[in-house]
Amino acid sequence: MRILGIDPGLRITGYGVVDIVESQQIYVASGVIRSNSDASLPDRLHTLFTGLCELAELYKPQVAVVEKVFVNVNPQSTLLLGQARGAVLTALTHSGLAVTEYTALQIKQAIVGHGKANKEQVQEMVKRLLKLPAHPSADAADALAAALTHAQSSKLLGALAAKDLPTSILKTRTRKGRTSWK
Predict the structure, then answer these.
(1) Exactly one of 22, 43, 57, 67 is catalytic; which is it?
(2) Active site residue 164
(3) Active-site residue, selected from the candidate residues 7, 43, 54, 124
């Protein structure tokens, strides 16, 4: 399975492509799409859209993974990031990809082992997991981490499905504000 991970941003959008072959995670490519900060908002969104469509055409992933947005203190920044995410999601679905989303907390938990990990810790773990010779940029590392998180989640769900467990065991329930497995 080939996974395209995306760390959305209006100025810089990170991407990472990972192949999953049996139990191996294989690095394919990573980088960033930069929009011109002097350009108009529609032009910047168009840059993201076309860049992601080109990546989908070039690497032909089976699935795309996008980091979910958190709410910034600055409402204007949050709105701009939301518009960038809209362009990203539209480009991916336009390219025929199924899109899965994970929060930054879920990604850091899966890759580093705790949700409060900093950028350097994510970069180091991505480097180790993919056996890279150097650290990827912070935005590319976040995108690769999103792809690796999906690979781990897919592997876990596949293993559970192979055990023929009743589907009710996979449902979550909330009690007194806490989520637990049923």
Answers:
(1) 67
(2) no
(3) 7
Confidence of residue 154 (pLDDT cuts 50, 70, 90): low
**What confidence tier does 182 reach under pLDDT thresholds 50, 70, 90?**
very low
Active site includes 19? no
Name the residue among 60, 23, 61 with its Cα closest to residue 152: 23
Asked if 99 contacts 66 with a C-beta cutoff of 8 angstroms, the reply is: yes
CA distance 58 to 52: 10
Q: End-to-end CA distance of the chain: give it in Å, rounded.
A: 30
Give dist(CA 83, CA 73) in Å, integer.
17
Per-residue pLDDT tens digits for 109-124? 999 988 788 989 999 9
Active-site hit among 101, 120, 139, 142: 139
Judge whether 142 counts as a catalytic residue.
Answer: no
